[in-house]
Amino acid sequence: MRAFALAVLVPTAVLAADRARERPAITVTGTAEVRSAPDVAIVTVGATAQADTAAAAQERVSTVVSKALAGIRALGVPEGDVQTVGVSLAPVYADGRPEPARPKEAPRIVGYRASSRLRVRTDPAKVGGVIDAAVAAGATDVQDVGFALRDDTAARMDALARAAKQAQQKARAVADAMGVRLGPLRDVREGSSSVVPPEPFPRAAAMRAEAAPTPVEAGRVTVASSVIARYDVEPGTPAPAEPAR
């Protein structure tokens, strides 16, 4: 008797699930962007020098970088926010291309080129001062300046909430246009998300120390999120739209 009852109940449950899956639904995607002012900036500064000997080239670079480091720290940048990210020393060879009627020369060292770079993490308002301090010390290389958020959690949550709200509004608009009543939410999931920093701008090398203070505009960090929602559809007159707030 129990086996017979089970055989009857299982197909009934399957049929009920099939009917639920066949129920009309509206699937929408909500998207939103939140633009926030960055609160951290990263800039790389450094120096490159060439001399007849490796020691002379390295000494010139070390002198410039040491002065630049002192100037940057004088701006209040903590020691832990300055990092050496590149040190190089390499020979410089003469052009070995042969002239007409002359055999090709063997590689010949004519000097040495040294370079060193510092990556500085600081407040966006101090970026111009960091660049000026480095250039005043003799820096020849100022690379891309980038901006970001130290913690983007709040911006992500804001964008996600706005995307969910837009998905709900889109579902109501579709239901109204189709002449049906929007039913309960069947399922919802988070879609894609991204954090796009302001476009970095490159700085040209060999800037003069006597130049005017370097202006730097941080721009905005764009945080984007999307939400995919599915609502059941119920036949009948659509519910009246909510008044605009």
Outline the structure in words.
The protein is an alpha+beta fold and 245 residues long. The chain has 2 domains: 23-37 and 150-245, Translation Initiation Factor IF3, CATH 3.30.110.170; 40-97 and 105-148, Protein of unknown function (DUF541), domain 2 (Alpha-Beta Plaits, 2-Layer Sandwich). It has helices spanning 2-22, 54-74, 127-136, 153-178, and strands at residues 25-36, 40-51, 82-93, 109-122, 141-148, 181-196, 221-234. α2 runs antiparallel to α3 (127-136).
Briefly characterize the structure:
The protein has four helices and seven strands; from the N terminus they run H-E-E-H-E-E-H-E-H-E-E.
CATH superfamily of the largest domain: Protein of unknown function (DUF541), domain 1
Strand order in space, largest sheet: 3-4-2-5
User: What is the CA-atom radius of gyration, in angstroms?
Assistant: 32 Å
Under the CATH scheme, the architecture of the largest domain is: 2-Layer Sandwich
Number of domains: 2
Query: What structural category arises from helix and sheet content?
Result: alpha+beta
Largest sheet: 4 strands, antiparallel
Kindly estimate the percentage of residues that lie in beta strands according to DSSP: 35-45%
Uncertain regions: pLDDT < 50 for 5+ in a row? 1-10, 204-210
Instruction: Give the number of helices.
Output: 4
Helix share, percent: 25-40%
CATH secondary-structure class of the largest domain: Alpha Beta
